[in-house]
Amino acid sequence: MHLKEKIFQSQSEADFEKLALEIYDYQSEHCPVYKEYLGHILTENREKPESIRDIPFLPISFFKTREVISKDQSSEIVFKSSGTGGQRSKHFVSNIDLYEKAFNSGYQELIGNPEEQVILALLPNYQEQGESSLIYMVDHLIKRTNSSMSGYFLSNHKELIETYNKAIARNKEVIIFGVSYALLDLASLKPNLSHARIIETGGMKGRRKELTKEELHNELKQGLNTEKISSEYGMTELLSQGYSLKNGVFETTSTMKILIREVNDPFHYVEDGKTGGINVIDLANLNSCSFIATQDLGRITPTGFQIMGRFDHSDIRGCNLLVQ
Hints:
With 324 residues, the chain is α/β, with parallel strands linked by helices. It has ten helices and 14 strands.
């Protein structure tokens, strides 16, 4: 069976690890950037990884300076980061079908069936810059709702509130995707959005002072009259997402796994509950690199993982990365 066909099968921990090691074997030979990186950090006689904790993770900064893609593939689409901190990361995606399967299965698993929802999007900066993987995903999900009420609202907050009220009156489940600063602008109007699931995705993009996750969610809960705020953990360099449904604890889908590395030693891992750098395994990144060392700080919890902030001196950009 081809690797692509294995990615979205229901997997146990053992199945995930076995497939991740197979993908490592493939990418260590077929992804030139990853192969070159491994050549610099590994000795010739280093043993082949026997577990996912033995796999070296590619620093995410390589997506800013290099074309991370398998040598036998060409890109169907190139996604770019928001670039708030300067240079934009680029993800050369050779098979858009992998991305669609990843976000559709993840959304269905953790958020719900878009065909039963109305999706309202408040993502002005992503629309303005273009080439956003988030916009591609939300576009697709909006189309799947097959509802004329679903759509983008840029800065038209009053129209969004009116549409929300109309959808609730028709007994529809309402999902609101919003970048943090736009949701705070919406919250200043004090609407009653108590029946919506609000998913914040992205920081302040230089528009407002950065807040901790807890501060942000408290302001949004008060201003939007809702008991909980959800979040999406995704980024240009990934094709899979994680979601927190409440309390800031993220869950991952079957194509994604989080490991927490030591801050000062990227080849060792911390105990669960301790804060460190987030490493992501994304099986859907089959034709780029599935093993990415991010600039995010986090920790493993009994039910998922939490985002604790970012490394010092790293650029502020991307989806849902808030500095403490």
